Amino acid sequence: MNWEIERGLLADGRKLICGVDEAGRGPLAGPVFAAAVILPFGIHISGLNDSKLLSEKMREQLYDEIIEKASGYSIASAGHEEIDRLNILNATYLAMNRAIEGLASAPDLALIDGNRNSGIRCESRFIIGGDGKSVQIAAASILAKVSRDRYMVDLAQKYPQYGFERHKGYGTKQHREMLQIHGPSEIHRLTFLKKIGAGANANLRGKWGEALALDFLLKKKYTAVSTGYRSRHGEIDLIVENSEFLVFVEVKLRKNANFAHAREYVGKAKQEKLRVTAEIWLAEHETQLQPRFDVIEIYAAYEYAPPEIIHIENAF
Length: 316
Hints:
Blueprint: H1 4-11, E1 17-23, E2 32-38, H2 56-69, E3 72-78, H3 80-86, H4 88-101, E4 109-113, E5 124-127, H5 135-158, H6 164-167, H7 173-182, H8 190-193, H9 198-219, E6 223-231, E7 234-241, E8 245-254, H10 268-284, E9 290-299, E10 308-312
Helix pairs in contact: 2-5, 3-4
């Protein structure tokens, strides 16, 4: 890899050129990252190449060398909610624009890996296979990839059940199996989960709603007791407690409230099943707390974020 592309542009009067690339367009979870890099013209970094062709160890080594030798660099991201709202292409452009605009000196031109640039706000040139042709795009690809991988490893501490430290959110067999068991977390991309299939997606969306509800309750200082408790009479989505109450929670997730509030789907028959199931749980577990039934409504259309969460205490 050499400086041929940049050399020609500099000869045409460009003064400051950056390379831009992204990482994480394909995963089912987490943000998409982008990096913008300006390297001193002609500098040699041994082993520099498209990040996808390098080992993790090599990427980590090059990451430190790129940052040390760069005249300027910036790393940015667009989150899973922005991906669901904007679609992955526009969210990628958003992350790229944030990276470019985060540079200390504004470039005259951005070289970007890809085949179209309608969403980039500065003057740019897209190069197909650019991460294997341009030194600066290759450097950007490494910064974006390593940064995102590190971010997903950190998320694995919060969501250990998914194995993010291994697959970084991509749709591996293991990841899909864990989704079927645990459902999605609040950092999964709902629009991407549609690809898994309509039947599976309905289940995953419900699990995602329960994860949102639990996170909401934990932030309100409740403590998780049980999730998905089943009896032959029914299932209780969440059981939580605080200093006063043991709370049996029914979670209802809807795209909107145009036709009926989510609470209206918890009718008399459903309430009776929940009461009987709660009585079975209480017979199996000792507690001094006062039982209570709550409903959590979540309104979350694929097109909008963040979801609206309504907590109805002592609902029935």
